[in-house]
Amino acid sequence: MQAKLDTQFSFPSELITSYQEIPLPEGFNLNLGIESDNKGLQINANPVLYTAHLPRILDWLHGLDQPSPLEKEPCDIPVLLFDKELSFDRLLFHYDGTPASTKIIKHFLHLFSENLRNSKATIISPAFIPKSKLKEEQEIIQDVANYTAETSFIKFNFNRIGDFWSYAVKHQKTLLVTTKNNQSDLAKVLFHFYKGGLWYDKLSFYLAL
After folding, report:
1. Which one of 13, 16, 55, 72 is most buried, by most CB atoms within 10 A?
2. pLDDT cut 90: percent of the chain above it
């Protein structure tokens, strides 16, 4: 049964499915889909993840005069937006050197630990990280490596979520892990490129705080 949602999503709640099991079971991605029998929640359960079919969200956004943030007031529960399919094959982590970024990545690894054994992960970090943050940076690289089959680490001065989206599309990443603080700009990027020549329908998005 799908949960009754108590969140501030801008789009209709019937477009959202909730989950409560940690870690999410192996093969979780195979059960996603508009007509799938996703495990939902009882009304009083505490969800650990919201999922939504990205094309349905974007079709809703295109019915508006201008793109709207996905959540009016971002909640602590992560949101996963999937398109044609959800694949953990090629992950892209947005790491900005902040404790919040570290928290997002660590929680993602814990939540999907049963699904990452064969994943190839790429971590993008700012070109400049203060010396005081270098140890933390190395720890997050090691954490990702412990959960995935292959991990690479690169430094770019990406300042906009559109930069990460472009990189993900160019390199055919299948899941971008980033912060909900980027959701307004992400909505604008997706709103603009949806169904266009650059659209990549195998890219999903994990947004968290």
Report:
1. 16
2. 51
